[in-house]
Amino acid sequence: MSKKTQLFIACGLAVVSIYANSASNYAQLQQQVIANDSILKSLQNSQTAFEVNQKFAGKLNNPTFNAELDNLGNSKLKELDGPSTMIGLSQEIPLNNKRALRQQVAGFQGNTNEYEIVKRQADLKADLRICMSNWFVASQRAQIYATESKLNARQANVLNEKLKFGRVIPSEVQLSSALSSESKLRHSNELKKIQYQKNLCSKFIPDLPNQAVEVPLTINFSDKTSLSEREASLKSQLAKSQFELAKKEAVPDITVGVGVRNYQETNDKVFLVSTSIPLPVFNRNNGKIAIAQAEQNYAEIRSALTARNTKIELENKQIQISNLIDAIHQYDKTLLPATNESLRIAEMGYQAGKISLLEFNSIKQIWLDKHLARYDLWLALQNEIAEVERNYVTDLAKE
């Protein structure tokens, strides 16, 4: 996306952004969620184990202790040479960089755990944003329904006064009373939704504030790294190392031994040096090499495809978020002020008998629909931002 478009998005976000203290409160809640998550703590504690595993992955195999007792049962050889004993040590020595590759593979396991840590943090941020946004929207809708209920109550009172003087028919009074009761019920139900959404958010933070916190509409599209792209890249690197290791494992290790032999008959001691080299006549590793190569090719293709798709998806998210910001800006600047003014004039006109009850209720319904639609757009915008938070991070090293 061009710099001009990014600047436009930033300006739009500034228009619909909340006050600085609300952003600060939300940031503190976000930090509490990340700090108190038990799954995240478990992943972080596991990182030490992966570091230990990487440290020991490249070490040599343990040496072998050898002991031999020779020439104990053959009497003729006993008279000729006498019995002998031998003790020694043998050690397998790789002929290539198997150890470095084993350590590299173990390191990728640790990188995968780090990726899981970052992914868990991203999921927590996205889930918290969605939950807190629904809580805030429920509280705003309750205020809208409260205003509607008061408006219907005033309308019912006006009709009751007009009925005393015979200026309206009883059916209009009954309809107005029914609408007033209905709006009170909607307001009551919305108040219950506030508590319902708050209870959902308490799964993340037990000690929530009394009132819903407006979630900031802040997001930066620059320097974004896709988590799925990062995961595919890790798998590609791991597959490459496993393929190289499979090729190296086809060359067997040599065994070097040292020892000392003692001849009891003559009390002579002989120092021994030995080596054994397996002959790779029957290479049983060809199957592993073929599988490792196939997995590497698949991982590389998947990594390239994921990198391409995630860039397209992020650009589409920018377009969707920009459109939602434009729509909210239009509501705040034009539609909502117009409907507010239209409702104010309609109420005065109805009380003065210049418009009918049907016309007044129609204008009132438009006012209600537009105010509710504004927060539907706001919630849709928060969901889009949450999806970006869940799938993209700015800097993996800092997350």
Labels describing this entry:
399 residues; two-stranded antiparallel sheet; 9 helices; 6 strands; rod-shaped; disordered N terminus; Outer membrane efflux proteins (OEP); four-stranded antiparallel β-sheet; alpha+beta
Structure description:
By secondary structure, this protein is an alpha+beta fold. The chain has a domain at 3-36 and 100-155 and 184-249 and 285-393: Outer membrane efflux proteins (OEP) (Up-down Bundle), CATH 1.20.1600. 70% of the residues lie in helices and 10% in strands. The protein has 9 helices and 6 strands. It has helices at 3-16, 20-36, 38-57, 75-80, 98-164, 170-201, 227-249, 286-351, 357-391, and strands spanning 64-70, 84-93, 225-226, 254-263, 268-276, 392-393. Strands 1-2-4-5 form a 4-stranded antiparallel β-sheet, with no helix packed on it. The longest helix is centred in the first third of the chain and has 67 residues, at 98-164. The two termini are 24 Å apart. The relative contact order is 0.14.
Q: Strand portion, in percent?
A: 5-15%
Shape: rod-shaped
Gyration radius over CA: 38 Å
N-to-C span: 24 Å
CATH third-tier fold name of the domain at 3-36 and 100-155 and 184-249 and 285-393: Outer membrane efflux proteins (OEP)
Organism: Acinetobacter indicus CIP 110367
InterPro entries: MdtP/NodT-like (IPR010131), OMP_efflux (IPR003423)
Pfam family, one: OEP
Protein name: Cobalt-zinc-cadmium resistance protein CzcC
